UniProtKB/TrEMBL annotation:
SUPFAM superfamilies in UniProt: S-adenosyl-L-methionine-dependent methyltransferases
Lineage: superkingdom: Bacteria
Keyword Phosphoprotein tagged: no
Organism (species): Pseudomonas grimontii
GO molecular function: S-adenosylmethionine-dependent methyltransferase activity
One GO-annotated biological process of the protein: oligosaccharide biosynthetic process
Protein's name in the database: Methyltransferase domain-containing protein
Keywords of this entry: Methyltransferase, Transferase
Length: 199
């Protein structure tokens, strides 16, 4: 069974940064690596489900023309909206995924520290929704903590394995450490150097 919304509501009760995204060097470094893995300098449209308090969202915003974020916890949505106030092209919605997947097409979908909260059925549904909303040259980026998390139905390895199987797209960039997995799949598997005429 997927982790229910009250779990996240409780995390944000009286705490605007329950995972210490702002304080921990681990988190700041991981965000930098996440952004560095992207193979394009800018994207037309980005969707970040499970945006929490908007720390990664804040760094994705300058890299796109349109940013849509969502979270299931109302407190997280309020915090992310506040974090993104300076970006007129950014929007934050409250929604439970995969059921309330947004309409529209996205060139990049960022699944950061989200998918291990979903059971296998919900994750399969989420991946299908992601595929249906990707542009013809769309990309999916996934980043997940490797150690098992109590109460989570899946591990990072299970999540990225299922993503790779169901996305059935070229894996164009990857960075794995003992602490986390970071992978980028793209419908266009052309390398950055090739796109810039270097190969």
């Amino acid at each position: 069974m997927s982790v229910a919304t009250p779990y996240f509501d409780q995390l944000f009760a009286g705490n605007d940064d329950p995972w210490a995204f702002r304080q921990r060097w681990y988190e700041r470094r991981k965000r930098a690596l996440t952004l560095a893995l992207l193979t394009r300098p800018r994207y037309a449209s980005v969707f970040e489900p499970g945006c929490a308090n908007g720390e990664l969202s804040f760094e994705l915003a300058p890299r796109c023309d349109r940013l849509l974020c969502c979270d299931t916890a109302s407190a997280a949505v309020a915090l992310a909206r506040s974090r993104l106030l300076g970006f007129a092209h950014a929007q934050v919605q409250q929604g439970r995924l995969p059921e309330q997947w947004p309409t529209g097409e996205f060139e990049l979908i960022v699944l950061s520290e989200l998918c291990y909260y979903l059971d296998a059925d919900d994750l399969r549904h989420l991946i299908d929704r992601a595929l249906n909303s990707l542009t013809a040259n769309g990309q999916v980026l996934a980043c997940h903590w490797r150690p098992a998390i109590e109460g989570c139905p899946q591990t990072a390895e299970q999540v990225h394995g299922l993503l790779h199987e169901r996305l059935a797209m070229p894996l164009v960039a990857t960075h794995h450490e003992p602490d986390f997995l970071l992978d980028l799949w793209s419908r266009d598997g052309t390398s950055v150097a090739t796109l810039e005429g270097l190969r």
